[in-house]
Amino acid sequence: MNFKKYLEIALGIVTSIGGFLEAGSIATAAQAGATFSYQLVWPIALGTICIIFLIEMSGRLAAISHHPLPAAVRERFGFAFHVVPVAAETVVDFLVLASEIGGACLGLQLLTGIALHWWALPVALLVWLLLWNGKFSLIEYGVSILGLVTIVFVVAAVKAHPRWGAVARGLLPSLPGHEKANYWFLAVSILGATISPYLFNFYSSGAVEDKWDETHLTANRITATLGMGFGGLISVGVLVAAAAVLHPREIRVDQYEQVALTVVGPLGKWGYWLLGAALFIACLGAALELSLDLAYVYSQCFGWNWGENERPVDATRFSTVYTVVILFAWIPIALGLDPLKLTMFSMAITALILPVIVLPFLVLMNDPHYVGKHGNGPVGNTVVFLVIVMAAVLALVSIPLEIFGGK
What is the pTM of this model? Predict the structure, then answer.
């Protein structure tokens, strides 16, 4: 492997770590730690293992078939079938995009003291300007590398001196002694936040834009494993910090601002400023990727010219899609919708629709026409299938219980 490949791996790992954590991961992990201490480490670990497999699969599909995932599903199953996952992703991506804009606005509120709803339009405009004028490398490397500031949560977790034995026990599922409905709703929301379809759609489309081929398979495997693995570690850091700082004081995370307590306690005022920067950068990066994901999905579904490296005038329908979704996604935040509640609901709905997105993906990854001799093994198929089905079933049960106040 030459130096260029090592550089690609290093950049890929760094950007994967920086791009992993966003509003969903922060909100779900912080609520879980504050409410249930270390008991909900296991869905982060399980979701991280699953997303490692899915990211590796999406890169392998792109490298071997030169098809991004949405285009391959459209070709393999036909347009009529593809309408269902496209519709599901449209709803979920829009909700998550709105929540990410809200998270970025909150970061700016922490840094400036100006109420978050005033930032909704400027943040949306910034997202659009970066997409309209930037290249794929700006999103892939620039914003994601800045997102490494989210490591502040790991530092805060270590400095909070948690009970590491309890953290280790949290890797195994256990039944809660109270608020059972909320426990399972949080578990589902964590799985939805960790296994977000936009992550592997964006990754496969990016691999095609970067012209990956079979020589990239080793780099892809290393990037997926280490990048997503360390990203999961940062999510655990959020939960551990919340469990060590907030849970003993019986402080619930009912507002995003309370997340600041998880880093202010261990790190002082610098933790506060770093949290504001982390929220803004991480959520801005996720908003960019979500906007692109919808543009990728629609363009690849309908056979339009697409690519962030294309000039907007050369891919007008592609750029129109992300323009339209951004145009509307800031409105719920500007109208005062609680970004934390929106985030939690969006993550749970994401878990619910995962089979619609992932099961056709598994079929592709076992089809020699697309992956040749590089098809999935039994371990990858089994792990992903079981986690996805479990997440969807838990979502189907826990969402109504949470909405209607089940105990």
Answer: 0.90
